Each structure stands twice: as C-alpha cells, then as structure tokens.
Amino acid sequence: MDNTRKEWLLNALMALALFGVPLWALMANEPFIITLATRIAILAIAAVGLNIALGLGGMVSFGHALYLGLGGYVAGIAAHHAFNGTPILAGIPGTNQMLVIWAIAMVLSGAIAAIVGALSLRTSGIFFIMITLAFAQMGFFFTLSWPAYGGEDGLPIFVRNQFPGLNTARPWDLFLISYGVLMVALVIFAMLRAARFGAALMAIRQNPDRAAAIGISPFGIKLVGFILSGMITGLAGAMMADLTRFVSPAMMAWTMSGELIVIIILGGVGRLFGPVAGAAILVGFEVFFGGLTEHWKLWLGLVLLAVVLFARGGLIGLIAGRAQNG
Amino acid sequence: MADPVLDLRGLSRAFGALKATDDVSLTLMPGETHALIGPNGAGKSTLMGLVSGKIAPDAGEVWLEGQNITGLSVAKRAALGLGRSFQVSSLIPEYSAQRNVMLALQARQGHSYRFLKPVMRDRGLRDTARAILARVGLDARASVEAAVLSHGERRLLEIAVALALKPRCFLLDEPMAGLGSEGTARLVSFLQNLKDEAPILLVEHDMDAVFRLADRISVLVYGRIIATGTVDEIRANAQVRAVYLGEETPA
Amino acid sequence: MTLALFLEQMLNGVQFGLMLFLMSAGLTLVFGVMGLINLAHGSLYMIGAFLCAAIASATGNFWLGLAGGIAAAAAAGALIEVVVIRRLYARDHLDQVLATFALILILSEAMRLIFGPFPLYLNVPPVLRGTVNLGIVDYSLYRLALIGFGIAVAVGLWLLITKTRLGIRIRAGESDREMIAALGVNIRVLYTVVFALGAALAGLAGALVGAIQSVQVGMGEPVLILAFVVIVIGGIGSIKGAMVGALLVGVIDTMGRFLLPRVFATIFDASAAAGTGAALASMLIYLLMALVLIFRPKGLFPAHG
To answer: Angle B242-B247-B249 (CA atoms, 0-180°, nearest 5)?
Structure first.
C-alpha cells in the first residue's frame, strides 16, 4: 500500500474513532469521556488553524494562544453581558448565540492576525518567533491586568451559549457541534492545501527566493495564510470557552502557544490529521499518565524530546511515511 | 533600430569599499543572446542580483520594455516578464518536476489567491506543464520530486520553469554549471532556438558554449564592463585577451 | 509622589535590569555562538535558585548556597548540552524551540520530584540585611548589593570576552565557525564551555533573586520570556545589546508599573483609569520589543553585519 493511501486510511480511522468512542460513552453513560473527546476536537481545531501557518507556510508562530484567548474572551464577554442584560458598549447587547459569537471571534481574530502578521512577517527566523510571542504576551498581560472582565481571576460563563436545534448543556450535543466544526475545519485545510493558494504557500515555505523569482510575492501569500490561521484558532478559542464555561488569561499564556505547536509536532507537521492525532495524544497522555503519576509532565517532556530528536514527522509520519506532494 | 527589451543604465553597487558593480550599462535587444562573461569575482552575481531585484542598486536604473522597474520587488519584476534561472538549482524540493512547472504557470497567470479548486485537477495547468517538460526532455521524470532529480535534470527543470513563465526576456545564470560535455551540448542546441521566443541574457563560464550561443558578448572585470561586441570583436580584443590570459584561452 | 519613592523605583529598575542581564548574557552568547534558541535557560535559573536555597538552609550559609547554586546550574548546563543540546545545533528553530520546551517540562518536574511541591525560602545573608541611607532614600542593602554584583559580573564578562583566550575563541565562533575549526580549536568542548558559562550566569541570577522571591517551580519562565525580550531588543548575539536591552527592560517595566497608573489616575480620576494604566504598563516592554523589531528588525546592536 502506498503512503498516500495509508494516510487516508489512518485519517478515516481517526475520524471514526473520534466519533465512535464518545458514541459508545453516550450509551455507557460516561459523560467524562464525551467531554474528553470534545476537548480533543476543539484543541484539534485550534491546531488545524496553526497548521496552516506552521505546517503549510513554515511560519513558526509562538503566539497563537493570542487568537485562542481572543476567541475565548469574545465568548465570555458576550455571554457575560447576555447573562446580566447589560450592553457591551452603548447599544450593543451581549449574545448567547454560538453562531454569532463564532462569527465575531473569527472576524476579530482575523483582524488582529492581520495586524500581527503584517508587522511580524517583516522579520524571519528567531525574530518572527519572538515577535509573535511578544504580541501574545501583550494580550496575556492585558487580560491579566484589565479589571473589567475578571483580570487574573478570569471570567466564568454561567450558562453555556446556545446552538440552534441542540441542547448545549448536554455533553453529547456539544460534542456533535465540536466534531462537526472540526470536520469542516479539516475540509477547509485540505482545500486550501490542494488549491493554488496552498501550492504557493507551501512553495514559499520551501524556497521563498524561487517563489519570488517566478512572480509570487511571499509576503502577501504568507499574510493571508497567517490571517486564515488566526481565524480558525480564534474560533476554537470561543468553543473552548464554552466547553470549560470559563475564560482566563491562561488561555493566552505562552505555554498554551507552546502546547499548540507540540500538538502539531506530535501528530505530524503539515499533515491533514496531524492536529487530530496530536490533540488525542496530548489529552490521552494527560488523562492516562496523569492518573498514574502527578509527574506525568516529566514523561510528556521525554516523549516530546524523543519525537523531536528521533521521529520527525510525528505519529502520522511514523505510520504513513513522508508526505506526498504530487 | 528596435528598442531594447532589457536596458541597464549606469548601475552601481558597492559593498563597503568593494565596488561590486561599477557604472554598468548594457542592453538586450529583441532576438539576441547577449552573454556576460568575466573572471571569478568580476561581479556577475551582483549584476544578476541587481537585474532580478534581489539587490538594490546605489545608482542607476533597470528598464524592461520601456518601463523603469528599478524600484520593483523580485516578484513584481518576474510578473512583468523577467524569467530567471538560478546558478545553483533553486527549485521547490518537495514538489515533483511537474508541480514545479505548474507553480510557474500559476504564477504567470497571476492567480495564486484561489482557495477552492485543487491544482492537480486543473487540466490546463497540468497539460501545459507536461508539454513544457517534454520540450526539455524531462517528461518521463514529471512525477519525480525535484530533490531526487539528478543534477543535470535539475538544470533542465530550471530551464523548464523559466519557459513556463513565458518571459519577455530570459536571465540565465550559468545554466551549464556542473553539466558534463554531453549535457552541455544538448543544452546549447536547445538554447540556440530559445532566443526566438525571447532574448537571453546569459551568464556563463563555459567559453565554448558562450562563443556558440552569443550574438554579443560583454566582458565584466572588477565590476566594470571593459568591452562589448560580437564574438569576433571580443576574440580580437587585446584588453580581453590580457584579462583572460592564463585563465581561459579563447579558442 | 516623592522624589525618594521615584529614586527607589529607579534603583529597583536598575537592579531588575542587571539580573535580567545575567540571564540574557548566557542566552545571547548561546545564540550568537551556536545559533541555538534555548527555552530551557529559565530552568537553569530555577536550578540555581533551588540548589542555593537547599544548600543555604542545610548549612546555614548563604555564600555556600550561592556557590553551590552556580556550580549546579553550570553542571546541569554542561550535562544537557552534551546529552541533548548538541544534537540541535544543525536543526531548524522549530526543533530547537520544541526540544528545549520539552526540557522545561522535564527539568521542572525533576525539581518537583526532588524538592517537593512547596516553595523554598532563601534568606538574605545577615551582612546584607537592612537598609542603607542614600541621602534622600533608605534603600535595601541586599538590592544595592545585587546592583553591585550585576555590575561586577558584567565587567568580568567583558574582560573574559575581550581579554582572554577563551573570549577570543568565543568571538571567533560568533563570526566564523569554520575558521575556529581551522585554527584547531575543539568546537565541541568550546560549545559545552560556552553553554555551561551561560548556565552558570543564569544559576547565579536565580540564586541571587531567590532571596527576594520565593523559590518555586515555574519561577524561570517569566524571567526567560523577559530575557528573550531583552536580547531581541538588544540584538541577538550581542553582549553589549544584552546590557542595554536589560537595563531598558528593567527600568521601563518597573517605572511603567509605578508611574502609568498614577499618571492615568490624575488624568481620568477614576479607579478604572488606574486599571487601564496597570494594563498598559504590563504591556509596555512587549510594545517596546515590537516597535524595535518593526523599525530595527535585527535589534539595536545587530551582532552580525
């Protein structure tokens, strides 16, 4: 079996497992497992976003927690005002509708990503890593010291936001929403990667000088990639806030940015289902080893180190071999 | 007389105290192959950088088909029709030969901001790329990754990518570098016909190839052009002979 | 606001800046010479603080603790350089970020395993307790000593880099790796020494700061991020840039937190205004870094050309 078919089979298995396990949990009345699967799905969406910038475009953003947090605060602030019946700004009411919140989260994340990207893409290498980190840190410290929405205590969402036709208070319904959005995000990623835009973006990652010499300006393509990337991660942030019914500056912490990168590396950089595999590994590791020892992060560190040093390509690379670019 | 396709006017560029390019003026006329030769360190790479837009000049201008392109980026110049090949093969390593050519076709059309239709389902792009690969004799290797191609095949793919751009002029930077005598002979006979599509500014070390291909030759020494003329004029030029004495002997 | 308070905050800023310099010097050397981004530099700071606190409390002697902290950090640095870091020099920045991120997880948990989950406390040595009168302000003697320490180490480092054989090799390594190989210098050993030197400086900073903060797992990361801000502002690879950047960051951060809420409060006279001031103050240095990168993409003192 060639590598491309192996990867598709693996992807199908993962998509099935991520649906089948919580379905089983629903019948076995194990809501905790359903919530775990929901968390995996939402983390995977966030990482799908980062995978556009990092995997396709080679932009090592060390600040994607910024968009996660932005999305989170959009959900939190909208719900806060809807719950209290107070306007956000004069005349603008809060809302508890997920679809509205998602749209706002994506537009806002996209706008901030446009600013951050336009400034950061003037640099490269370690400077790009550091300037994206700096912007995320600004967001982190701003939310930490801005008293209106809880500051460092964070902001609770007392009643989960609503989705038409479903009861979001039920774990299974929330899982269905997250799973559906994840599948849509994966389809978008696959389409981008296969389209002319993806061809240009991946070419720029591999050889920016060549791309410029044939007339593709790296800056514009990378910026659009960065914006799309931020939008999807922002969407995941809004969903994450609804899952935990809580937002705090921790969502914007640099360790969160690191975790998103770790997810992609564990799963496989630039691979379609890399974020799904990586998120499942990370959450699974936390639950399994976290139950065995309080020092599970020691083992996570060792595994991560081993993957970086010896198993480039992550889980999917390990099973399905190198990526085929046609 | 026709207007030049490419017109370099008084280009200068210094790196610290070193004048890598010193008041260089040069024209590329329609239908000609204009070779740029010179000993190592003469400033050929810098001049190529100035023309392609990778390096900004301290003084002087670059004109392409009557348009001043001095302030434009590498990508804009390429989009306007500057088709450059690289001295050291510079391809998209993980892309197959076909995808490398398809990317150039896509770039020429100027449609890289398309997010929906898969590239590989674009028949027009695929068929054109195949045809171009066939022209340089690489059609059998279309689906091989550029990183895996042999050195000679990569040199041919460089040419194929330049062809795909349908440029207003070719900027070929040592296309024969590292090719064996057989490969060089094949490439020379291919390039002999290429100038009918667009004129060629050729930087090349292989003097035999230069003398067979060039209509005019400019000799660059220490960043300055010391002579420009036909093959015979350059062969007869005493100054050029002095510079090349002991390095390369014009046949 | 009195002049005395202003002066005290200013000195705090300088003291903070000098401690940041100790952190940043190692980070910038390692990047300049080996081209490596080391996120685990904060863990070496933590190791210095933990060992200093543990030894000081066991022996009752701060100075023994300080020596032990520095030695432990240097030894840990040399060990991880040989075991892990060495494999990363030829890798891209993404691999370096990830592998050293993994090292943070490992080293933090290792500290928790060895020293338990609770913070340690490190007392200021008796000779440096109390305050000293500086004319208009009574200032903490220990913090003043930290300023002295910082300056002394900076001068020592400058002498090391400019006057010694090791320094010549380090500078050669920054400009041309192949050249020092050609000169017959054992690069592997040189890299280990440079890394251990940076680790020792981080350990020193951790141990010194440990006496004015609690010593706990996770103490290294905020300092690490600030040290990155410092070297990016100063220009990666430049010791002089690290010094200027560290003082800028130390003073601007401290003075921003001190002044901005007061300034905002006088303009808008509301408690929310003070909150705004505080929020803005905590973002100041990142704003500074972003501005520097936008206008001087290689920092204030670019090390390479």
So the answer is: 75
